[in-house]
C-alpha cells in the first residue's frame, strides 16, 4: 500500500516501476511456468496493440525469438493497420509468425449475419455499406448503471446513437464474441502443433474489470502482464524497444466495423485516469487525493469506484472455473 505520509500528494508517480527489474522478474516467471507446463515455447496473437506487443517482447526476453511464434488474425471488420503493426512488432523482435484470416470462418458460422440481424431489431434498413459499434455511458454521469448504446453509420456517413433493448445487446455481443473465441482456437492449434504454451495479454485493468471474453481472449496458459496497470505496460514496452508506432497508437478494441476506443466500449475513462482510480482504490488512497491527481472531483472518483465494483461482479463470473457438484480430490479440485 502506498505510504501517503511520505509523499506530498498522490500522483501518477505512484505507478512508476523499475522496468528493467520487472522485465527480468517476468522473464524468470515465464521460464518457470513453461517448465511446470512442460512446454518449450510461447504462442501469442499480435493485435498491433500495446499489450500483445509488450507481451511478445517479454516472451522473447524469456525464451528467445526462436521459441516464440506470432499469429496475426484479421477478420472482415479489422483495421488493416492492426495487421501492419502486428507484423512490425514480430519483425522488430525477430519472431516468426503466420497470418490466419478468420473472416471466412466467422462468415461460415454466421457471425456477421447474426450480429446484423440483432442490429436490425433497432435499424431495419441496416445492411451492406453500413457500419456500427457499441459504446458505454461515462461512469462520471448518470445513475450508476452501465448503459450501452448502439452507434450506426449509414452508407452516406450519417450516424445515429440508439439505446438497445436487452435482446439486441445480447445478440450483438454474443455474435461479436465469436471473433475472440475463433482467434483463441487458432492460437491453441499452433500451440499444440509446436508444443508451446498460449500467452494471454490482459493488463491489470482488463483482468480486474472483466474486459475479456470467457474462453476467448480470456483463455491462456500464462498471463505475464495481468499484474501491471496499463500505464506500466507502456513503460515496459518503451523499455523493451516496442516500435514507436505502437506506443503512439490509441488503445482500440478493433472489433466493430466503426472505429472504437476501449474507453468508449468499456472503461468510459482514458486508461491513465482509470489506472490512478483503480490504484487508489486498491491501496486505500482517499478519494480527495485521487481527485487531485486525476483532475476529477471526489464525487466523480467515488462514481468511478462504484463502476469498478460493479464490473468486478461481472469479472468474478468470467474468472470462475467450471462448477462441479462435488470436488474431485484426485486432481486437486
Description:
With 333 residues, the protein is an alpha/beta fold. The protein contains 13 helices and seven strands. Strand 1, helix 2 (50-63) and strand 2 (68-72) form a beta-alpha-beta unit. Helix 5 (111-119) packs antiparallel against helix 6.
Give the gist of this structure.
The chain is of the alpha/beta class and 333 residues long.
CATH architecture: 3-Layer(aba) Sandwich
Coarse morphology: globular
Q: Kindly report the average pLDDT value.
A: 93
Instruction: Determine the N-to-C terminus distance.
Output: 32 Å
Report the CATH topology name: Rossmann fold
Helices and strands: which structural class?
alpha/beta
Task: Give the strand order of the largest sheet, numbering strands 1, 2, ... along the chain.
Answer: 3-2-1-7
CATH class: Alpha Beta
> Which blocks of ≥5 consecutive residues have pLDDT under 50?
1-7
Q: How many domains would you count in the coordinates?
A: 1
Question: What composes the largest sheet?
Answer: 4 strands, parallel
Could you tell me the number of beta strands? Answer: 7
Output the helix-strand order: HEHEHEHHEEEHEHHHHHHH
Radius of gyration from CA coordinates = 21 Å
Q: Helical percent range?
A: 40-55%
Amino acid at each position: 500500500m502506498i505510504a501517503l505520509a511520505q509523499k506530498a500528494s498522490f500522483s501518477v508517480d505512484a505507478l512508476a516501476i523499475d522496468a528493467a527489474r520487472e522485465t527480468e522478474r517476468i522473464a524468470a516467471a515465464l521460464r518457470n511456468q513453461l517448465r511446470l507446463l512442460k512446454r518449450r515455447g510461447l504462442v501469442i496473437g499480435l493485435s498491433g496493440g500495446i499489450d500483445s506487443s509488450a507481451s511478445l517482447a517479454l516472451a522473447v526476453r524469456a525464451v528467445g525469438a526462436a521459441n516464440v511464434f506470432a499469429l496475426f488474425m484479421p477478420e472482415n471488420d479489422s483495421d488493416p493497420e492492426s495487421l501492419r503493426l502486428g507484423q512490425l512488432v514480430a519483425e522488430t523482435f525477430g519472431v516468426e509468425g503466420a497470418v490466419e484470416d478468420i473472416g471466412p470462418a466467422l462468415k461460415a458460422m454466421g457471425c456477421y449475419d447474426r450480429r446484423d440481424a440483432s442490429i436490425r431489431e433497432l435499424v431495419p434498413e441496416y445492411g451492406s455499406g453500413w457500419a456500427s459499434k457499441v459504446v458505454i455511458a461515462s461512469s462520471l454521469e448518470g445513475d450508476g448503471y452501465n448503459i450501452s448504446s448502439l452507434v450506426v453509420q449509414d452508407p452516406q456517413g450519417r450516424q445515429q446513437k440508439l439505446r438497445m433493448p436487452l435482446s439486441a445487446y445480447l445478440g450483438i455481443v454474443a455474435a461479436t464474441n465469436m471473433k475472440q473465441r475463433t482467434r483463441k482456437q487458432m492460437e491453441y492449434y499452433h500451440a499444440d502443433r509446436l508444443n508451446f504454451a498460449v500467452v494471454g495479454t490482459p493488463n491489470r485493468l482488463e483482468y480486474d474489470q472483466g474486459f475479456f471474453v470467457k474462453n476467448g481472449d480470456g483463455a491462456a496458459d500464462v498471463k505475464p502482464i495481468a499484474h501491471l496497470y496499463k500505464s506500466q505496460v507502456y513503460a515496459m514496452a518503451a523499455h523493451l524497444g516496442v516500435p514507436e508506432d505502437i506506443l503512439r497508437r490509441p488503445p482500440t478494441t478493433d472489433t466493430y466495423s466503426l472505429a472504437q476506443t476501449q474507453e468508449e466500449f468499456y472503461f468510459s475513462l482514458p486508461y491513465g485516469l482509470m489506472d490512478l482510480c483503480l490504484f487508489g482504490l486498491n491501496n486505500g488512497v482517499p478519494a480527495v487525493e485521487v481527485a487531485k491527481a486525476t483532475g476529477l472531483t471526489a464525487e466523480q472518483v467515488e462514481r468511478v469506484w462504484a463502476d469498478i465494483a460493479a464490473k468486478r461482479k461481472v469479472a468474478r463470473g468470467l474468472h470462475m472455473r467450471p462448477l462441479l457438484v462435488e470436488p474431485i480430490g484426485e486432481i486437486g479440485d
